[in-house]
Amino acid sequence: MLIWLPEMTQSALNALANRAHRLLAAEGALYLAASPFSVTRSDVANPALEAIRAIEMRSVEAEARFGTASPRVLGQALLRAEPKLYTERAKRLGGLRLWSRGRFFVAGEDVYPRLIAA
User: Fold this and answer.
1) How far apart are the first and last CA of the chain?
2) Structure pTM?
3) 8 A C-beta contact, residue 90 and residue 34
4) Rounded Cα–Cα distance for residues 22 and 106 (Å)
């Protein structure tokens, strides 16, 4: 999903996602990364889940700025954009980041749990 987070680089955000997802996976709760605002069985705060929730809240700003938090929708719009707009994309999209929801499908199978465990 797209988030607006100009104060963090994409590589730092990727490292944060990796760590949070590994912590959830260690608890057998990696499925929560895909829907972090769903109700959990525990009343105890989970730092990894709280970090994911805080990051995902930044999608609201991305949607307000670009009309979507979907990388696919934004990519399709950029493909149809006028050349001048497209050439200024770095300036316009400078704070936009990609956030991993903890899923990666290959041939219909979510292989992310294996990737994060490796």
Assistant:
1) 23
2) 0.84
3) no
4) 20
